[in-house]
């Protein structure tokens, strides 16, 4: 055997799609689903938030193609899915802490394929949260909107959670593993209040509203509720797109810094 052939045999072969495959996706998803705390966090917390609002007065007032209860339903589904997706993305912090990320960097797995896998797992977990909230909403019987609006709102809400999956990955790369959710939990709650997810923006003072329009939750909330409200300001779309790109860029930047250490 020649020296050239030996060198070729020792080279790492780059797998198709950078190493992304359904087996890897299945392993990551099953790992999340085996965690009981994750299941409780994904299914119970969002549903409990929906139930905590109860059937308050004024829920039957009309909003777009539905009523106030439907408006709140979509908002709670977005919050639950955003929290779940961000928590899933932030798992990279724990993986870095235990050395799993370092082990993956020794394989031919492309970092982009790794992030894509995390994003898809976050989508799956976010979908569970959205379904849980909508099931509770149907059981309550307060929310009213056409079926096609209901389905469209669920789909749009799901894709909106990609923003917070990217945020979770970004945070996971810049803070220690045990601190990721300590930052994301209160942080997302604050962003939800400021972004008009829990309280309509017209009930805030003008100064607070001016700040709210710049927060990450405002744009995605408007996009998620657009199938119901039939209203979508152009600046809300810009807000949603810009924050999504910023979080993606931040995650990619921190990931490149992290992989450069090997």
From TrEMBL:
Q: Which Pfam families match?
A: ABC2_membrane
Q: Where is the ABC-2 type transporter transmembrane domain?
A: 23-226
Database matches in InterPro entries: ABC2_TM, ABC_2_transport, Nod_factor_ABC_transporter
The UniProt entry lists membrane topology as: Multi-pass membrane protein
Q: What is the top-level taxon of the source organism? A: Bacteria
Q: Which residues form a coiled coil?
A: none
Q: In which compartments does the protein localize? A: Membrane
Q: Where are the transmembrane segments?
A: 38-56, 68-92, 112-137, 149-174, 180-199, 234-253
Q: Which UniProt keywords apply?
A: Antibiotic resistance, Membrane, Transmembrane, Transmembrane helix
Where primarily located? membrane
Q: What is this protein called?
A: ABC transporter permease
Organism of provenance: Nocardioides eburneus
Taxonomy-wise, where does this protein's organism fall, top ranks first? Bacteria, Bacillati, Actinomycetota, Actinomycetes, Propionibacteriales
């Amino acid at each position: 055997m020649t020296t050239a052939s030996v060198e070729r045999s020792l080279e790492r072969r780059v797998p198709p799609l950078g190493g992304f495959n359904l087996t890897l996706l299945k392993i990551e998803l099953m790992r999340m689903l085996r965690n009981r705390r994750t299941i409780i966090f994904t299914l119970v917390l969002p549903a409990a938030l929906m139930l905590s609002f109860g059937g308050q007065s004024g829920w039957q007032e009309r909003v777009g193609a539905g009523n106030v209860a439907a408006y709140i339903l979509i908002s709670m589904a977005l919050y639950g899915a955003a929290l779940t997706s961000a928590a899933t993305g932030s798992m990279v912090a724990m993986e870095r802490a235990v050395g799993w990320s370092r082990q993956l960097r020794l394989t031919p797995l492309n970092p982009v394929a790794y992030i894509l896998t995390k994003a898809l797992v976050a989508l799956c977990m976010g979908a569970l949260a959205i379904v849980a909230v909508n099931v509770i909403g149907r059981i309550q019987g307060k929310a009213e909107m056409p079926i096609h609006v209901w389905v469209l709102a669920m789909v749009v809400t799901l894709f909106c959670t990609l923003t917070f999956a990217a945020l979770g990955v970004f945070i996971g790369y810049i803070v220690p593993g045990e601190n990721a959710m300590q930052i994301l939990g209160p942080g997302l709650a604050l962003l939800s209040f400021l972004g008009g997810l829990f309280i309509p923006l017209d009930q805030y003072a003008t100064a607070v509203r001016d700040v709210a329009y710049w927060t990450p939750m405002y744009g995605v909330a408007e996009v998620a509720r657009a199938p119901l409200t039939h209203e979508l300001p152009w600046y809300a779309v810009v807000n949603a797109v810009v924050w999504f790109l910023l979080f993606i860029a931040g995650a990619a930047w921190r990931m490149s810094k992290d992989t450069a250490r090997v």
